[in-house]
């Protein structure tokens, strides 16, 4: 989903003719969908059940008859959100069984941490590995890692956020390593092992001059000591109006992928003595949802002031669905099959805030709206197949798994933008 005033499709600095070519190509793709759609309609297999499908039919007819007429698509916004990947909302779709998955073997990827390698930790059923995300109106292209590594030569990709961000970082490295012959040419720059608390991990693909970095910043904003005369229970003040001080290291990336959400809970904040602070004064009664919004606005202002959108593609991943159940939301039953319905988990207040804040930004930011796709995947969490089986986990995902899909989508975006550089 692309939100923000500058549409990425229009490119911030893509020459006009490239833009035109690309739009034409996308229309051709839409024409393809329309053809199938029409065939089904005419055959009576599809019942026009709503006004919107009727409008879509009319639009299809129009595009099919006048394939060179562009504005109609933009004006009517069909498909719903404009998107470099086949002009469709890639986050609206379903999971399809696919035997060609998973993309890699986590036990053979030195950067998949043991805690996420469910098979190595004793998970027996393997069905959860064999799913592909199918957007409603397009396909996520199957990526050739050899070619992708060439495209990414000389680049720096930076993931920032919590452990869900670390999972995506690990997944990205494992996916890219498929295309690397000499696995020893990929290494962590400080020789560090992956641990939960580490603030920086940098993996270098030396044959491709490519860096894939991770910065741990679970709230994105800066924690500090409690102010003097603060109540005893306050141990740390989270400064909602100051971005994390390691943010200066994110600036010169080619792609920046952020997340935040899982730490914004009473048990990770107030019960640990963390309280909010704005402009030097503690906000003891501030609800978590307003605090999250304030932090995100701080992040947005920082990005607008410091990031050069001509150099850096910015992404924000929405809340990664979790599947806790029971009255206290502390029971975790990993299923064998994905849920067939999202059961309300395709919505999250955190995701809503991310989407709203990004929409008002002056620079383009792509929202990776992974909440709905994750909502189905009650089968894909680490559960008790983690490094600590006594504490079941319905927040983190097995690798390989759902985070690989986030990366397939992310890579598709990066590559469609890389057309710019050709
Ligand atoms: C993954 O690799 C390990 C180590 O080489 C091997 O023992 C295991 O069978 C592989 N798993 C799968 C699912 O191929
Ligand atoms: C990937 O691309 C390379 C270079 O273009 C090609 O040689 C190789 O056969 C491709 N691999 C697959 C699996 O398509
Ligand atoms: C980005 O590129 C555009 C078009 O070349 C230019 O007008 C703009 O000043 C650039 N922005 C920055 C921050 O460099």
Automatic annotation (TrEMBL):
All residue ranges annotated as the Trichome birefringence-like C-terminal domain in the record: 140-412
Compartmental location: Membrane
Domain of life: Eukaryota
InterPro entries, sorted: TBL (IPR029962), TBL_C (IPR026057), TBL_N (IPR025846)
Membrane topology, as annotated: Single-pass membrane protein
Residues that span the membrane, as ranges: 36-65
Keyword Transmembrane helix included in the entry's annotation: yes
A GO MF term: O-acetyltransferase activity
Stretches assigned to the Trichome birefringence-like N-terminal domain: 87-139
Keyword Glycoprotein: no
Family note: Belongs to the PC-esterase family. TBL subfamily.
Protein name, per record: Trichome birefringence-like N-terminal domain-containing protein
Lineage of the species this protein comes from: Eukaryota, Viridiplantae, Streptophyta, Embryophyta, Tracheophyta
